[in-house]
Give the backbone structure.
Amino acid sequence: MSRSVTDWRAKILGALSDPTRLEIVEFLGGEERCVCEIVPPFGRAQSTISKHLNLLFEAGIVERRTDGKRTLYRVRNPKVFDLLREVDAMALDQISELKKAEEMLEASIR
Amino acid sequence: MSRSVTDWRAKILGALSDPTRLEIVEFLGGEERCVCEIVPPFGRAQSTISKHLNLLFEAGIVERRTDGKRTLYRVRNPKVFDLLREVDAMALDQISELKKAEEMLEASIR
DNA sequence: GCTACATATCACCATATGCCGATATGTTTA
DNA sequence: TAAACATATCGGCATATGGTGATATGTAGC
């Protein structure tokens, strides 16, 4: 029960734990885009992007539909953006603390 | 620049993308606890838990201090709990959609 | 100083992940 | 039907990850 919720959480977080996939989600934003639009900006093989997209799909981050010969992806639940904003807040906290530490270090040297 | 923020985000999310680590974070809650308290409930080798804790530390999720022969860990930024609540919301959405789909499937069978 | 305790680290194994090029599948268009 | 296009899937490689038991490091107590 509770076990499976934890697993879902881990799956969602795992899907978002890769820089390329994070950027794919950002790139999608609120739009629906086909793979042929998503591939070029990332400079990775089409097969690589396809696997990332499938992983995001399996984790329920994106949904997809096919239209003719293309497959269109879109972010399924806008909550993911709230989540990313939350992570950003944490990341910024940490980076600014790092900077503070660096400055203190520098000050102590000179 | 922007690259390194994305990497930080990925690092934070990666640290939280494992069920054991998620449960360690939950277990810590707002408290400060030593490794000797954390290990038993998880039924994993001490070395395994130690590695998980170190990974959480590297990602800036927890902080640690030593007191005598023990090392005490605590969640460093309470924002992590907001983040987890956000993930929960998503996970619940997805699980409930799964259930809905199952019910529709069952209904169509009988 | 020796012993027991608490924790981190090491060496190792098995599996997962990210990446690629090549190929299979399916759809449109000529 | 053939050719072109869009995407997914396969096989393979290198590296990362999670797990373990054994060992190193450091502190507390006797």
